[in-house]
Amino acid sequence: MPRFFMAGTNVLGGMAIIRGRDAEHVRVLRLRPGEDMIICDGQGTDYKCRLVSADKEQVEAEVIEVVPCPAEPNIKVTVLCGLPKGDKTDYIIQKCVEAGACEIMFFSSDRCVARPENPEKKLERWQRIAEEAAKQSGRGIIPQVSWAGDFAAALDVAVKKELRLFMYETGEREALNTVLEANRTAADAAIITGPEGGFAPFEADLARVCGLHICSMGERILRCETAPVVALTATMYATGNL
């Protein structure tokens, strides 16, 4: 069923009035009067609607039912990734949105290969990727994509969460599944993963001092764009969201 977020939409008297880019999308999809669609308010509520009319200016749809979005997990996970090079950011955003992240943040760390001077310039495109992935996967929110800053700023975000996971490939670590099993009822979580070169030892030491769980995902070394998706998926499974 086609899914739209409520930007440019008003709901008045049981009717949803859609204008702008989403109205154009309705026409591109060639939806006909009587066909159903879902309009989401971006806060986790779905408006099940039936198309009444569509023209060049606006689309009108009758609201049939208002329900909580069933696709939203009961744990709010912030994924923090060391900035990778190239378009790996696009993959991370798309797959983490599909897997259930509520927020995705990139940061610079000691071994980052990519060091853009103005990463903020990419935020608009990153947010569009998140929106399209949210529509495709039936999400009830559009996860926010942002630039955290440096490694210390990423840690500052993570320490405020109930469950704090730091993915590291060497040294003394806890098994991720063991940590997740002990925290199945956590309300929110942060997952920190590194860039292509991984984390420097001093960064792992700092994360440990800050009270993060230094976690292993097994003996295989995962690519920087794979690790956040795997860790997030494991978290969703452990908390009953898969």
Largest sheet: 7 strands, parallel
Mean of the pLDDT scores? 91
Q: Going by CATH, what is the homologous superfamily of the largest domain?
A: SPOUT methyltransferase, trefoil knot domain
CATH C-level category of the largest domain: Alpha Beta
**Strand percentage, roughly?**
25-35%
Number of domains: 2
- Per DSSP E runs of 2 or more residues, the count of β-strands stands at 13
Task: Kindly provide the radius of gyration, computed on alpha-carbon positions and rounded to a whole number of angstroms.
Answer: 20 Å
Global geometry: elongated
* Spatial arrangement of strands, main beta sheet: 9-8-7-12-10-13-11
CATH topology-level fold name of the largest domain: Alpha/beta knot
- CATH architecture classification name of the largest domain: 3-Layer(aba) Sandwich
**Uncertain residue ranges:** none
The helicity comes to: 25-40%
Features:
242 residues; alpha/beta; Ribosomal Protein L25, Chain P; Alpha/beta knot; 2 domains; seven-stranded parallel beta sheet; six-stranded mixed beta sheet; 13 strands; 29% helix
Give an overview in words.
This protein is an alpha/beta fold and 242 residues long. It has helices at residues 21-28, 88-99, 123-137, 151-158, 176-181, 201-209, 227-238; strands at residues 3-5, 9-12, 15-18, 36-40, 45-54, 59-68, 76-82, 103-108, 144-150, 163-167, 174-175, 188-193, 213-216. It folds into 2 domains: 3-68, Ribosomal Protein L25, Chain P (Beta Barrel); 76-238, Alpha/beta knot (3-Layer(aba) Sandwich). The strands form 2 sheets. A 7-stranded parallel beta sheet has the order 9-8-7-12-10-13-11, with helices on both faces. Strands 1-4-5-6-3-2 form a 6-stranded mixed beta sheet, with helices on one face. Helix 2 (88-99) packs parallel to helix 7 (227-238). The protein is elongated. The protein starts with a strand and ends with a helix.
